[in-house]
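Let us walk through a complete example step by step. Step one is to write down the protein sequence. Step two is to encode the small molecule, zinc ion, as a SMILES string so that its atoms and bonds are unambiguous. Step three, shown after the inputs, is the structure prediction itself.
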Amino acid sequence: MSANFEVAHILGGLGEGIENLGLNGWQLRTLSAIRRCRTAALGGNVDACDSCGNISISYNSCRNRHCPKCHGHKRKEWIKAREADLLPVPYFHVVFTLPSELNELSLHEPKDV
Ligand SMILES: [Zn+2]
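Step three: the predicted structure of the complex.
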């Protein structure tokens, strides 16, 4: 069963408005790659069967490491590997709020934040 909606569809719905979200260049390039992945925008291949004449079109992938189409399986493998590292003890998920003054910095320098 395939998903009815993909991240690329949502990003496509934003259109040019995506440029006005205040994202940095790296974030915009990533979203652009995900939006264009496996579409005619990235080119593709046409394969035809010599016997039955069936034609199959396959579009190129973006290969961006954040793309769910390209690296969804790698994410699952990574999660499995991390689960193997877990100790047999209880873990706690901690969530906290940063001061709102750091919002802009967190958008542009997420690693530092
Ligand atoms: Zn992709």
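Step four is interpretation. The chain is about 40% helix and 10% strand.
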